[in-house]
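Entry 14. Ran structure prediction on the chain below.
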Amino acid sequence: MCKAARSLLGWGQGEFAEASGLSKSTIGAFEAKDETARMTGMNNKAAVEAFEKAGLEFIPENGGGAGIRFRKRADGTREEH
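Output, structure tokens:
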């Protein structure tokens, strides 16, 4: 989901590294693993916070699978990046 989130924001690994404080090598290693891979707790927290600060929200698995999207504004429209 990391690549999908970066894609929504138009971020390369460098922009994501800058926003999250993670190294490009950590991001690259994580993204090279299969989709069941997990980051350490601290790295995961930094990644999620960077994506949320940029306007994304994570959608929990609810029978249709987990996902990510732009957060809705109070007026019902989506945030734009």
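The mean pLDDT is 86. Will compare against last week's run tomorrow.
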